[in-house]
Amino acid sequence: MKFATADLCDAFGPVVHLAAPIFRDYGGLSRFAGAIETVRVSEDNALVAQALETMGQGRVLVVDGGGSLRCALVGGRLAALAHANGWAGLVVNGCVRDSAEISEIPVGVRAINTSPMRGGKSGTGQRGGQVSFAGVTFSPGHFLYADEDGIVVADHNLTT
């Protein structure tokens, strides 16, 4: 899929939503796009793992971790699982760990920061449904585009 978020903003300005530039690029791919799937968790990554264990089919998993900086919600093992199962990328409203390892995996990963502490494993949270952060509402089935310039969300595929 070929695109540039700047071009998408120019061409589709009124229908795209731009996420606030709070995310750092940790993945092996800096450009990724796909239909959105969501998870909402609080310092617990069991539902993140559960989602990534399914076939991604080029989707992007948006993880709303409430912006917590206390622990990581994605590490090297989950990033590798995302790649193996065909996920295009992850956007984490929280932290990742194993950042050097993640940078070698050909999957897009954006997060606020890193934390060496791992998340809990109780499975609390919600899978699916709308999540809102960084000034954008992310809805399952909508489309996310990320590149070196930022993250853009639209309610339909802009590149077909």
Number of helices: 4
What shape does the CA trace take? globular
- What is the CATH topology? Glucose Oxidase, domain 1
Write down the domain tally. Answer: 1
Question: How many β-strand stretches?
Answer: 12
Provide an overview of this structure.
The protein has 160 residues and is of the alpha/beta class. It has one domain (5-154): Ribonuclease E inhibitor RraA/RraA-like (Glucose Oxidase, domain 1, 3-Layer(bba) Sandwich), CATH 3.50.30. The chain is 18% helix and 34% strand. The protein is built from four helices and twelve strands; from the N terminus they run αβββαββαβαββββββ. The chain has helices at residues 5-12, 46-52, 76-84, 99-102; strands at residues 16-18, 24-25, 32-40, 60-64, 72-74, 89-96, 108-114, 126-127, 131-133, 136-138, 143-147, 150-154. The strands form two sheets. Strands 1, 2, 3, 4, 5, 6, 7, 8, 11 and 12 form a ten-stranded mixed β-sheet that branches. A hairpin with a 2-residue loop joins strand 11 (143-147) and strand 12. The longest helix has 9 residues, at 76-84. It is globular. The mean pLDDT is 97.
Which labels suit this protein?
Glucose Oxidase, domain 1; ten-stranded mixed sheet; globular
Give a short summary of the structure.
This protein has helices spanning 5-12, 46-52, 76-84, 99-102, and strands at residues 16-18, 24-25, 32-40, 60-64, 72-74, 89-96, 108-114, 126-127, 131-133, 136-138, 143-147, 150-154. It has 160 residues and is an alpha/beta fold. It has a single domain, classed as 3-Layer(bba) Sandwich (Glucose Oxidase, domain 1), CATH 3.50.30.40.
